[in-house]
Amino acid sequence: MLIIVAHPGKNHDADAIREHLKTRIASWWMPDDIAFVDELPHTATGKVSKLQLRERFRDHVLPTA
User: Fold this and answer.
1) pTM of the prediction?
2) How are beta strands 2-5 and 34-37 bridged, if at all?
3) CB neighbours of residue 56 within 10 Å
4) Which of 4, 16, 12 is nearest to 53 (CA)?
């Protein structure tokens, strides 16, 4: 899963992002799904809190092909 911080006024199109990534990364790195968030959670030291992201997206269901 790819988690992107959504900026106001920008186009949030997952298909366009996949097209952009297709020529830049290996096929096995292509994310299964793309989620947009307003901001990333941070720890007290300022690092991105992967623990909070995992908890938030724990029940996320991948789209069917």
Assistant:
1) 0.78
2) parallel
3) 14
4) 4
CB 57 within 8 A of CB 35: yes
The Cα 59–Cα 12 span in angstroms is: 22
pLDDT digits over 13-34, tens only?
A: 999 999 999 999 999 999 999 9
d(Cα 18, Cα 53) in Å, to the nearest integer?
Answer: 21
User: 2-56 maps to which CATH number?
Assistant: 3.30.300.30
Distances (CA, A) of 41 to 9, 13, 16, 59: 22, 22, 25, 18
Q: Looking at this protein, which amino acid is placed at residue 27?
A: S
